[in-house]
TrEMBL record:
Localization, UniProt: Membrane
Residues that span the membrane, as ranges: 97-123, 135-155, 189-209
Claim: Transmembrane is one of the keywords in the record: yes
Top-rank taxon: Eukaryota
Methyltransferase as UniProt keyword: no
Recorded topology in the membrane: Multi-pass membrane protein
Listed GO biological process terms: equilibrioception; sensory perception of sound
Assigned GO CC terms: membrane
Protein name: CLRN1 protein
Key words, A-Z: Membrane, Transmembrane, Transmembrane helix
Length: 232
């Protein structure tokens, strides 16, 4: 492939990596990871609410990795409540999983930035043969993509398996009991998915530029080596 086309591919991959780093950093600081509604089961059972009356007992909840808010509905109107994971909710959430998600987000941002720098270096500079070259580009892309996948798996397990929304909804509630009525992942969570796909696409772009995958050996080299061995 001509050098100009390779330069264009590396520039495109570098811009995509930089966009992923900025998008992940923005996603970490928002409260748009999970959105849902919570039902005040205690209040609904007290008045035997059904149909349209049930909406008076359905509140809202949304949260991210550090903070969130919920609107408490128990038949007397909405009452908003702000909360933060550190240090308020550490006793009721799976703290190890939650901290791991934040750490992997940090690693994803760092390696996305590193990958963007090396892509640009390979486009406009003279690449080295080791970590600056194609093997390094594969490495940074693989690590960033793996971190994105781990973030989604860990956070999904925290929300779905450990019932994170219900634990947050029942935080400091002694009389009323809340249950998740609906729940869906919001924009910031899907931003991580897009970033993971982008880093996978970057690896394909490197291959499209004409570089072999790491640790792959061509058949021709093996044939030549075998012929040399026979000669000697």
């Amino acid at each position: 492939m001509p050098a100009q086309q390779k330069k264009l591919i590396f520039c495109t991959a570098g811009v995509l990596s930089l966009a992923c780093a900025l998008g992940t950093a923005a996603a970490v600081g928002t409260q748009l990871w999970v959105r849902g509604t919570i039902l005040c089961t205690t209040g609904a059972l007290l008045v035997n609410a059904t149909g349209p009356e049930l909406h008076k007992f359905i509140g809202e909840i949304q949260y991210g990795l550090f903070s969130g808010q919920r609107v408490r509905q128990c038949g007397l109107g909405g009452r908003p409540f702000q909360f933060s994971f550190f240090p308020d909710l550490l006793k009721i959430i799976p703290a190890s999983i939650h901290v791991s998600v934040i750490l992997f987000c940090t690693v994803l941002i760092i390696f996305a930035l590193v990958g963007a720098g090396f892509f640009m270096f390979n486009a406009f500079g003279s690449p080295y043969e080791t970590l600056h070259g194609p093997i390094g580009l594969y490495l940074w892309s693989f690590i960033a993509c793996s971190c994105g996948c781990l973030i989604m798996i860990l956070f999904s397990s925290e929300v779905k398996i450990h019932h994170l929304s219900e634990k947050i909804a029942n935080f400091k509630e002694g009389t009323f009991t809340f249950k998740t009525h609906s729940e869906q992942f919001a924009n910031s969570f899907w931003t991580i998915l897009v970033c993971s796909l982008v880093h996978f696409i970057n690896a394909l772009l490197i291959r499209f530029a004409g570089f072999e995958f790491p640790f792959s050996k061509s058949k021709d080299s093996g044939t030549i080596t075998g012929a040399v061995d026979l000669m000697y």
